[in-house]
Amino acid sequence: MQSWKRTMWILWFGVLFCSSSYTMSVPFLPLFLYDLGVDKSSVNLWAGVVHSSAFLVGAIMAPLWGMLADKFGKRKMVIRAGLSLAIIYALIAFVQTPWQLVGVRMMHGFVGGFVPASMSIVAMIAPKEKLGWSLGMMQAGTMTGGILGPLFGGLLAEAFGMRRSFIVAAVIIFAAALAVIFWVKEDRSGETSAKAKDKQPVTYRMAFRNRTLIYLLLILVVFQLSLNMIQPLLSLHIADLQGGEKGAVLSAGLVLSLIGIAGIIASPIWGRLGEKKGHYRILILCLLSAGTVVCVQYFVEALWLFAFVQFVFGLFMAGIVPIINTLMVQNTDEQFRGRSFGLTASANQFGSMLGPLLGGVLGLFLGIHSIFVATGVIMAATGILVWTKRSRNRTVVRS
To answer: What keywords sit in the KW lines (predicted)?
Structure first.
């Protein structure tokens, strides 16, 4: 096996472990709030605050971790994030109040960065003609973790309680960090020679001069905002659909896993289609389709039908982030790669911070079905805006 592909597969398992440790704990935090004494009338707002707190800090820290990745090595940032997250997940098991949970989630946002640093390594080592496929496979790795995490977390929570599932999540991310420590080597000789040839300092000012990068980051912010408007409320909505909280953690785990299964199937396919048909064309298709499918959930009242629609949504959602990552890599300098993935992570975190807050506030005044419609409209509108901009650019070029 080629060395770049071997490294990619090790990191693939790393992001799988990272994603599974996340999804076996964080999606169930709204239900965990009941154990901490939060009443049903305010749980939607608390769920939004708990989710957003990590993303607020993460949005601030991600560019710093990206800069340090370029300076000291991306592998070191992966290891730092993995070991730190293991401690954070273990701490969640011991919180006693909602505010303590918010504090631990803020620490979670502070130390994050495992997946973007891993993506940055793969983007650096993959051959140009395999870039779309390799980033699609990495996204599929996170989706695979998205399957295993909710299933495993739901089963553990039902059998032993949610607190013990947080401890298991800590062990899993610790194992991912160990895998990187022992089996991933980072060759930085190419980076060093490139820096020697180009004396221009690599700073974040380069990002503000790159209009395409800014444009892609804005798309990512809006997508994550719309996606995370509904994410913190999903487990609560599933409990309502099945008629009670008993067994809701396991049911939520099964439904959330379907999104991950869809992602595994679709992510590599979207990557290949992007290379053949054009990445922007596939991005527009995924945004429009995902938005339409989310709107359909306004009419869904049965749990089995909700699960099916979530699976279809996962098929289209799976193409959006890897395509944006591929376009970002194609439009940035290699020396800026760590920072660009740091900015991508920051955009993800910023949108993920605003989304739960907006969804939580809307949840106080509107039903969850209306939030589904708002989510879908934002996604579809983003697709239309990208389509309009591309059409306008082609018209200018022709004239």
So the answer is: Cell membrane, Membrane, Transmembrane, Transmembrane helix, Transport
Ordered by start, the domain boundaries in the chain are 3-181+206-398
Q: CA 172, CA 30: separation in Å to the nearest integer?
A: 22
**DSSP label of 242:** T
pLDDT band for position 398 (50/70/90)? low
Nearest to 89 by CA among 42, 12, 32, 4: 32
- CATH 1.10.357.10 matches 3-181+206-398: no
> Higher-confidence residue: 334 or 134?
134
Q: How far is CA 167 from the centre of its chain?
A: 22
Contact 111, 81 (CB under 8 A): yes
Segment 194-238, tens digit of pLDDT? 444 444 555 556 667 778 888 899 999 999 999 888 876 777 788
DSSP structural state of residue 334: G
Give the separation between CA 241 and CA 65, rounded to whole angstroms. Answer: 41
